[in-house]
Amino acid sequence: MQIKILTLLLFCSSASSLIAQDAAPQPDRMVTYKKVGDVELKLHLFEKASDEKDRPAIVFFFGGGWNGGNPSQFYPHCRHLADLGFVAMSAEYRVKSRNRTTPFECVVDGKSAVRWIRSHAQELGINPDKIVAGGGSAGGHVAAAVATVPGLNAEGDPKEVSCVPNGLVLFNPVYDNGPDGYGYSRVKPRHEEISPMHNIRKGMPPAIVFLGSKDKLIPVKTAETFKAKMEEVGSDSVLKVYEGEGHGFFNYNRGHGDGSNYQQTITEMDAFLTKHGFLSKSQ
To answer: Dienelactone hydrolase domain spans which residues (predicted)?
Structure first.
């Protein structure tokens, strides 16, 4: 009898897991934005059916230390924003575990993604001046670097098309690659070439940053320095520090508490996007 009950419980648990997986947001379609040799990089795209041609867009870059990771990390964020009228995308980009690449190629691909989105604004039904880049951890680095570093452009990309997004949504981002920052050993002596902190200049897009006060990879002091440097050049920079939280606290359904951090961060993200005209106040 006990064995039957245990078997039933295991079956129910497995069924619940499958239901949860089935209920997870899934892209509406995939589009290829770049090919490198036999590697095809895609945008996992979320959108509501619409004839509008002036929608805002956002592209997210997943975390994983430039080594791994998956676009599905930001599926919940994409579905949420697509329901509010965005064309929301989670981008594939080359990483070390799959492509034997370095952080430099990650940024190169990030720039290619934003350029592709802007170049295809008409067919995507988006406003090319309302493109946001976002990401978490190393993906936050990619988004921030796309906005800041002047080099690391792919051969063959249309350089006349700007890769600089119009806004940034960054979750515990790696944005200091200097000797006191993260990833220095992997990018020296070229750290200034790839470090967002070292390339802030006038005209940077507005940014919102989410960080846990107990993040062991990204100190709050680093975030405060980034904010100060952004404000020095006249760019809006919002910093949201979550007390007692560590790295990755913002993720949806990833074992980080009761989900309230995810809910609060997207609420604050929406307010930031509304403030800067990507969302209307009625949404």
So the answer is: 194-260
What number of CA atoms fall less than 13 Å from residue 205's CA on the CB side?
A: 30
CB-based contacts of 75, cutoff 8 Å, min separation 6: 24, 25, 26, 27, 44, 46, 90
Output the pTM of the full model.
0.90
Q: To the nearest 5 percent, what fractions of the chain are helix, strand and coil?
A: 40, 20, 40
The number of distinct structural domains making up the chain is: 1
Domain span including residue 115 = 29-275
Tens-digit pLDDT profile for residues 166-218: 999 999 999 999 999 999 999 999 999 999 999 999 999 999 999 999 999 99
47 within 8 A of 82, measured Cβ to Cβ: yes
Mean pLDDT score, 33-45: 97
The tokens for 67 are: 């080594």
